[in-house]
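Sequence in, structure out. First:
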Amino acid sequence: MIKVIAMKETTSNMTVYFLNLTEPKAFQLNMVKLTQQKIEILAIYNTEEDRFEEVTLLFSKRYLDHLMKQLTAQIHPYQSNAQAL
């Protein structure tokens, strides 16, 4: 389960910060950079290094697509509900 906590949108991309509530507390903060409805970068916050580390290549396209659907449902809830109908 994920929970979007912040977003920043520009003309070319969107950065979304979210908590992955299924992970241990120290590893919950994640960040994605989205472009054209696609995850370009997935990063996890490393509390020991005090920075985000990219982990995109560690996950399958299927997982990233599923994550994108979860994020979209929270970012644009009305749009997602209309598409589901």
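Second:
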Amino acid sequence: MANKKSNGYSYTKSTTTTKKMVGIYDAEAGIITVDGTEEKELLTELQDFEGAIVEISITVKDKENLADE
């Protein structure tokens, strides 16, 4: 459906496609190692989105156990 808008009224349909990979990133190889064994090539994983406007978000988590200090 198309976006229809007039005088303060809008009717929009949005579709979001999400792909998530969690693992260790190797910048030289362009690979994320998932679950310690499965290698995913970033360029291959992004092929489905060729020509699309994409938003890429990177989250780095670091956990320090302070109870033992």
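Remark: The two ends are 59 Å apart (CA to CA).
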